[in-house]
Amino acid sequence: MSFSDYLFLFAGMGLVTYLPRWLPLFFLARRDLPKWLVEWLSLIPVAILCSLLAPILFTDQAARSLEIGKPEFLVAIPTLLFAVKTKSLGGTVLIGMGLYWISGFLLS
Amino acid sequence: MTEHTNVTTKNESWFWDGATASWPICFGYIPIGLALGVLANQAAIPFWAVAMMSILVFAGSAQFICVAMLAAGASIWSIIFTTFVVNLRHFLMSSAVAVHLNGIRRLFLSAFAYGITDESFAVNMTHFRTGNWDHKRAITVNQLANTTWIISTVCGAVLGQFIPRGAFGTDYALTAMFLALLLFQLHNIVYVLTGIAALGISVAWYLLIPGDSYIIGGSITAATFGYFFKQYREKHT
User: Fold this and answer.
1) B127 pLDDT exceeds 50?
2) CB spacing of A45 vs B121 below 8 angstroms
3) Which residues does chain A have within 8 Å of residue B186's beta carbon, measured at their own beta carbons?
4) Which of B202, B195, B180 is closest to A76 using CA atoms?
5) ∠ CA B162-B74-B89 to the nearest 5 degrees?
6) What is the pTM of this model?
7) pLDDT tens for each residue of A67-82
8) N or C: which end of chain A has fewer CB within 10 A?
9) d(CA A97, CA B167)
10) Could you give the CA distance from residue B187 to residue B180 in angstroms, rounded to a whole number?
């Protein structure tokens, strides 16, 4: 593909990515939202985080099938306990990485 | 006077605060960005095109899909359409973050919107909840993550296959970060039940329906369930 082909493709992708990121901010942040919407939106972060995590923890993503007890899930348990204990985001990331790295040797 | 001093200290350290908050994201982006660059390199996409894509699009999963689709010879329009569907979830995140950016200038909001990703959204929302967070700190998180992403993807494309995949558990960095951020969001039983509902619904959705709609579908359904549970609980206690 030529330079202009790539530019057209990525500009198009950029536009359709930017619009959903921009529209709500641009139009919602300047007005007072109804109480029900604020309450509903306050639950969105938890819901999105769980939706993003669920397939990683509970499914075989290559085969797109249920998989209980995969390393990602087993490592998540001590990682979460560490997060409960320390309340540290950075520490939790490091511990999670370390445990996952070790699990690669233990479970293979 | 005390008020004034507080505001000054708060403003002075905005860059440092943003940088401190963003490092787990940057840490997680480096291996993923490198991997994307390597794949692009294998699909014969030049490094300058990788740079262009990371700057113009800045969306991890969509960029991976784009590389795979280009390698498979997909048309430009089908790639753009797929990108749109995959990134629609940011509409929800942008709406949720808007609550915390009330009254900020529209030019700033337009710049801020560019940097809304799963990761920056989760980190910024956690900090907005605990207070002591503002738009300057939040956009610092967005843009440091963005810079890391651009550099990592280009490095991956240039260095190609010289980099070993998954060393030191780096593949797990973003998962661990999401786990910690999720935990910090569980303020009471309503949030816990919303989370459990989201886990169940999105797994079922993921298994039954192809594509990435499980993220939006699971989130909206679970948040709505959580909202009605909260209403019910307030009426009956």
Assistant:
1) yes
2) yes
3) 46
4) B180
5) 85
6) 0.80
7) 999 999 999 999 999 9
8) C
9) 10
10) 13
